[in-house]
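Fold this sequence, please.
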Amino acid sequence: MSEHQNIEYKQSWRDEYLKWICGFANAQGGRIYIGIDDRGGVTGIDEYKKLMDDLPNKIVNYLGLVVDVNLHEKEGKHYIEINVPASTVPISYHGVYHYRSGSTKQELKGTGLHDFLLKKIGRTWDDTIVEGATIGEIDESAVASFLKACVKSGRIYQSADKDDLPAFLQNLDLITDDGKLRAAAILLFGKRPQRYFIHSYFKIGKFGNSDADLRFQDIVEGNIFEMADKVVRLLKERYLVSPVSYEGIQRIEKLEYPEPALREAILNAIVHKDYTSTTIQLSVYDDKLMLWNPGQLPVDIPLERLTQKHPSRPRNKHIAEAFFRAGYIESWGRGIEEILTAFKKADLPEPVFEELWEGVMVTFLKDIYNEEYLKKKGLTTRQIKGLVHIKQFGRITNGDYQRINETSERTATRDLQELVEMRLIIKAGSTGKGTYYFLK
């Protein structure tokens, strides 16, 4: 049996492995085997009798956990199994919280630790009470828009349209029995959410040739329920181009990027944002969009699993529930899959997801003729320079290719032919000086 998320092998015992036990307890539980190598082969331990006495006491004294410690034997070699159950309360080792994610152990810090501690007691940040906020802070027109969307989606209780405002908010668990508003209520329907949560706005900027070249920018404020529509509308009006095409006599205008994917990404950012941190930032360039959202991924969903099927783990459960009821999002963790599918249908490069600056960045590329994308496709530096030249000037000749790459005619011919075979460019003409290449 090989190591995986719930199994760890150690050839001998060290007290630092108490951190691994801590990590298993804070996650889904697991087993640690002492006296087995990384390949699953039994190497055995000589001091097994002493460890059978010491380990249960150490684990109780340092971690407060009662675990099963079992002795096994194979071919005359003894090894120990430590069976760690998942804990219902947070476990720390010397004041530090560890978490098992995938086949690695993480030390929880910052917002990741904050979210973990809240989750262990069955709460999320948007569940907290906003002291001093009254129901007069709620914009009833925003609630009416929300209710209309919920009725359309069929995800609201039948008498919702007959409830007064306090009853409606209470049925959504956005207000306590004694009339205190939760953070989610202010963010979703507040008249001025930024009064309580200063960074709850959405920032968009148009950049030129570099990050220092900011051409213009906008800030979208107000309640977050209406924010996604405002952001998409602003992108269409000021930031993105809608090329015109025709299907028969019907005029078709589509954004440079798939609109459903953009909307899904913006909704994901709003729903999963860490509202104790800074603002959501959308940077628009000539060849790409970069959307950065403050807030790390859940500890049990590492980046490499984000683009795979995974469960929904909302940072803000009340906000996520409201957007689900309105039909804006699903509750199955399928948002990333929908984004990827939309870009694939549009024949555009797969979006790039990264964890940066205690947040998540997604980069949307406008076309495949992008340096970042082409590097991942395995193209040489010469070929990338050639494609960039075509993108800038519309075409390239063999002589142009030789000049910009300082290479021979033979190498230029071979490189260009490879690009043709990869269906990245098209050759015009057969031989001679009249031959040139342009983008497919």
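The chain has 14 helices and 17 strands. The domain at 371-439 is CATH 1.10.10.10 (Arc Repressor Mutant, subunit A).
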